[in-house]
Design a protein that fits this description.
- By secondary structure, the protein is α+β, with helices and mostly antiparallel strands.
- Helix content is about 40%, strand content about 20%.
- The chain has a 5-stranded antiparallel sheet with strand order 3-7-6-5-4.
- Strand 6 and strand 7 form a beta hairpin.
- The longest helix has about 70 residues.
- The chain is elongated.
Length: about 220
Protein backbone atom coordinates (compact mmCIF):
# COMPACT_ATOMS: atom_id res chain seq x y z
CA UNK A 1 0.00 0.00 0.00
CA UNK A 2 1.07 3.60 -0.53
CA UNK A 3 2.35 5.38 2.51
CA UNK A 4 0.21 8.46 1.76
CA UNK A 5 -3.53 7.68 1.73
CA UNK A 6 -5.44 8.77 -1.33
CA UNK A 7 -9.10 9.55 -1.74
CA UNK A 8 -11.26 6.61 -2.88
CA UNK A 9 -14.10 6.47 -5.36
CA UNK A 10 -16.80 7.31 -2.84
CA UNK A 11 -15.08 9.39 -0.23
CA UNK A 12 -12.30 9.32 2.28
CA UNK A 13 -9.56 6.85 3.20
CA UNK A 14 -9.68 5.00 6.49
CA UNK A 15 -6.40 5.16 8.39
CA UNK A 16 -5.13 3.26 11.38
CA UNK A 17 -3.97 4.99 14.56
CA UNK A 18 -0.39 5.02 13.31
CA UNK A 19 -1.35 6.74 10.05
CA UNK A 20 -1.17 3.66 7.80
CA UNK A 21 -3.76 3.27 5.07
CA UNK A 22 -6.17 0.41 5.75
CA UNK A 23 -9.36 0.54 3.71
CA UNK A 24 -11.02 2.77 1.17
CA UNK A 25 -14.32 4.32 2.22
CA UNK A 26 -15.87 2.94 -0.95
CA UNK A 27 -15.16 -0.64 0.17
CA UNK A 28 -17.25 -0.23 3.32
CA UNK A 29 -20.45 -1.18 1.44
CA UNK A 30 -19.12 -4.70 0.94
CA UNK A 31 -20.40 -7.60 2.98
CA UNK A 32 -17.85 -10.01 4.46
CA UNK A 33 -17.48 -13.36 2.71
CA UNK A 34 -15.39 -16.48 3.23
CA UNK A 35 -12.14 -16.03 1.35
CA UNK A 36 -12.09 -12.24 1.70
CA UNK A 37 -8.51 -11.03 2.19
CA UNK A 38 -6.99 -8.23 4.28
CA UNK A 39 -3.48 -6.90 4.49
CA UNK A 40 -3.44 -7.16 8.30
CA UNK A 41 -5.47 -8.12 11.34
CA UNK A 42 -6.03 -4.42 11.98
CA UNK A 43 -7.51 -3.99 8.51
CA UNK A 44 -9.95 -6.84 9.19
CA UNK A 45 -11.00 -5.20 12.47
CA UNK A 46 -11.50 -1.84 10.79
CA UNK A 47 -13.57 -3.37 8.00
CA UNK A 48 -15.84 -5.40 10.30
CA UNK A 49 -16.23 -2.48 12.69
CA UNK A 50 -17.30 -0.23 9.80
CA UNK A 51 -19.60 -2.98 8.49
CA UNK A 52 -21.13 -3.32 11.96
CA UNK A 53 -21.73 0.43 12.17
CA UNK A 54 -23.36 0.42 8.75
CA UNK A 55 -25.59 -2.60 9.47
CA UNK A 56 -26.55 -1.53 12.97
CA UNK A 57 -24.62 -3.45 15.62
CA UNK A 58 -21.46 -3.03 17.67
CA UNK A 59 -18.39 -5.14 17.04
CA UNK A 60 -16.48 -6.79 19.87
CA UNK A 61 -12.96 -8.19 19.52
CA UNK A 62 -13.22 -11.74 20.86
CA UNK A 63 -11.00 -14.82 21.04
CA UNK A 64 -7.59 -15.21 19.40
CA UNK A 65 -4.88 -17.81 18.92
CA UNK A 66 -1.13 -17.36 18.86
CA UNK A 67 1.53 -19.05 16.81
CA UNK A 68 3.44 -21.75 18.69
CA UNK A 69 6.54 -20.64 16.81
CA UNK A 70 6.79 -16.92 17.55
CA UNK A 71 3.79 -16.16 19.80
CA UNK A 72 2.18 -13.74 17.35
CA UNK A 73 -1.59 -13.67 16.84
CA UNK A 74 -2.55 -15.75 13.77
CA UNK A 75 -6.31 -16.25 14.32
CA UNK A 76 -8.95 -13.84 15.49
CA UNK A 77 -12.70 -13.92 16.04
CA UNK A 78 -14.74 -10.71 15.77
CA UNK A 79 -18.26 -10.90 17.12
CA UNK A 80 -21.41 -8.91 17.79
CA UNK A 81 -21.38 -7.29 21.22
CA UNK A 82 -24.53 -9.27 22.06
CA UNK A 83 -22.65 -12.55 21.67
CA UNK A 84 -22.84 -14.93 24.62
CA UNK A 85 -24.79 -14.51 27.83
CA UNK A 86 -23.98 -12.63 31.01
CA UNK A 87 -23.51 -14.80 34.08
CA UNK A 88 -26.28 -14.29 36.61
CA UNK A 89 -24.93 -13.11 39.95
CA UNK A 90 -26.97 -12.47 43.09
CA UNK A 91 -27.58 -8.78 43.69
CA UNK A 92 -25.86 -7.31 46.72
CA UNK A 93 -28.83 -5.13 47.48
CA UNK A 94 -32.49 -5.41 46.60
CA UNK A 95 -32.57 -1.63 46.13
CA UNK A 96 -30.11 -1.74 43.26
CA UNK A 97 -31.66 -1.74 39.79
CA UNK A 98 -30.89 -4.84 37.70
CA UNK A 99 -28.38 -4.23 34.92
CA UNK A 100 -29.72 -4.03 31.40
CA UNK A 101 -29.41 -7.21 29.34
CA UNK A 102 -26.70 -6.54 26.76
CA UNK A 103 -25.85 -10.10 25.70
CA UNK A 104 -28.45 -12.22 23.97
CA UNK A 105 -26.48 -15.14 22.58
CA UNK A 106 -26.03 -13.60 19.12
CA UNK A 107 -24.00 -15.82 16.77
CA UNK A 108 -23.02 -13.17 14.20
CA UNK A 109 -19.24 -13.13 13.64
CA UNK A 110 -16.32 -13.33 11.30
CA UNK A 111 -13.18 -15.39 11.84
CA UNK A 112 -9.95 -14.30 10.17
CA UNK A 113 -6.77 -16.33 9.90
CA UNK A 114 -3.27 -15.32 8.87
CA UNK A 115 -2.05 -17.34 5.90
CA UNK A 116 1.53 -18.14 4.94
CA UNK A 117 1.37 -15.33 2.40
CA UNK A 118 0.92 -12.85 5.24
CA UNK A 119 -2.65 -12.06 4.21
CA UNK A 120 -5.51 -12.34 6.70
CA UNK A 121 -8.37 -14.37 5.21
CA UNK A 122 -11.98 -14.70 6.36
CA UNK A 123 -12.54 -18.39 7.14
CA UNK A 124 -16.02 -18.06 8.64
CA UNK A 125 -18.84 -15.54 8.36
CA UNK A 126 -22.14 -15.68 10.24
CA UNK A 127 -24.43 -12.91 9.02
CA UNK A 128 -27.66 -13.49 10.96
CA UNK A 129 -28.34 -11.70 14.25
CA UNK A 130 -30.97 -12.80 16.77
CA UNK A 131 -31.88 -9.24 17.77
CA UNK A 132 -33.01 -6.04 16.07
CA UNK A 133 -30.30 -3.99 14.36
CA UNK A 134 -30.16 -0.28 15.08
CA UNK A 135 -28.32 1.98 12.65
CA UNK A 136 -26.88 5.05 14.35
CA UNK A 137 -26.97 8.14 12.09
CA UNK A 138 -23.50 9.60 11.54
CA UNK A 139 -22.02 12.30 9.36
CA UNK A 140 -19.76 9.76 7.69
CA UNK A 141 -18.83 6.08 7.96
CA UNK A 142 -15.40 6.52 9.48
CA UNK A 143 -14.74 3.53 11.68
CA UNK A 144 -13.99 3.95 15.34
CA UNK A 145 -10.43 2.69 15.14
CA UNK A 146 -8.70 1.00 17.97
CA UNK A 147 -6.20 3.24 19.72
CA UNK A 148 -3.32 0.81 19.39
CA UNK A 149 -1.81 -1.05 16.47
CA UNK A 150 -1.11 -4.80 16.73
CA UNK A 151 2.61 -4.08 17.19
CA UNK A 152 1.89 -1.67 20.03
CA UNK A 153 -0.40 -4.24 21.62
CA UNK A 154 2.30 -6.90 21.39
CA UNK A 155 4.73 -4.53 23.10
CA UNK A 156 2.17 -3.81 25.81
CA UNK A 157 1.53 -7.53 26.28
CA UNK A 158 5.26 -8.17 26.67
CA UNK A 159 5.53 -5.32 29.18
CA UNK A 160 2.61 -6.65 31.20
CA UNK A 161 4.03 -10.19 31.03
CA UNK A 162 7.39 -8.97 32.34
CA UNK A 163 5.64 -7.03 35.11
CA UNK A 164 3.62 -10.13 35.99
CA UNK A 165 6.80 -12.19 36.21
CA UNK A 166 8.39 -9.60 38.50
CA UNK A 167 5.31 -9.62 40.73
CA UNK A 168 5.38 -13.41 40.84
CA UNK A 169 9.03 -13.38 41.91
CA UNK A 170 8.26 -10.77 44.54
CA UNK A 171 5.30 -12.82 45.74
CA UNK A 172 7.49 -15.93 45.91
CA UNK A 173 10.04 -14.03 48.01
CA UNK A 174 7.30 -12.83 50.38
CA UNK A 175 5.96 -16.37 50.59
CA UNK A 176 9.41 -17.70 51.47
CA UNK A 177 9.85 -15.05 54.16
CA UNK A 178 6.42 -15.86 55.57
CA UNK A 179 7.28 -19.55 55.72
CA UNK A 180 10.49 -18.73 57.59
CA UNK A 181 8.53 -16.65 60.12
CA UNK A 182 6.00 -19.44 60.55
CA UNK A 183 8.78 -22.00 61.06
CA UNK A 184 10.39 -19.75 63.70
CA UNK A 185 7.03 -19.33 65.42
CA UNK A 186 6.53 -23.09 65.37
CA UNK A 187 9.96 -23.70 66.88
CA UNK A 188 9.33 -21.09 69.56
CA UNK A 189 5.95 -22.67 70.28
CA UNK A 190 7.56 -26.08 70.66
CA UNK A 191 10.27 -24.63 72.89
CA UNK A 192 7.65 -22.88 75.03
CA UNK A 193 5.64 -26.08 75.24
CA UNK A 194 8.72 -27.99 76.43
CA UNK A 195 9.39 -25.32 79.07
CA UNK A 196 5.82 -25.58 80.30
CA UNK A 197 6.10 -29.38 80.48
CA UNK A 198 9.33 -29.03 82.47
CA UNK A 199 7.67 -26.57 84.88
CA UNK A 200 4.68 -28.88 85.36
CA UNK A 201 6.98 -31.84 85.99
CA UNK A 202 9.01 -29.83 88.51
CA UNK A 203 5.85 -28.77 90.36
CA UNK A 204 4.70 -32.38 90.52
CA UNK A 205 8.06 -33.49 91.92
CA UNK A 206 7.94 -30.76 94.59
CA UNK A 207 4.39 -31.74 95.53
CA UNK A 208 5.44 -35.38 95.72
CA UNK A 209 8.40 -34.62 97.98
CA UNK A 210 6.21 -32.38 100.17
CA UNK A 211 3.72 -35.22 100.55
CA UNK A 212 6.47 -37.62 101.58
CA UNK A 213 7.77 -35.18 104.20
CA UNK A 214 4.29 -34.60 105.63
CA UNK A 215 3.63 -38.34 105.91
CA UNK A 216 6.88 -38.93 107.71
Amino acid sequence: MDEQPSEGNNGEMIESSNGKELLNEGNMDMEPYVGMEFESEEAAKVFYDAYATQIGFIMRVDAFRRSMRDGKVVWRRLVCNKEGFRKHRPRRSENRKPRAITREGCKAMIVVKKEKTGKWVVTRFVKEHNHPLVVTPTNNRRSLLLSQTPDEKDVKIRELTAELQRERKRSAAYHEQLEMVLRDMEEQSKHLSRNIDDIVQTVREIDSKRGVLLNS
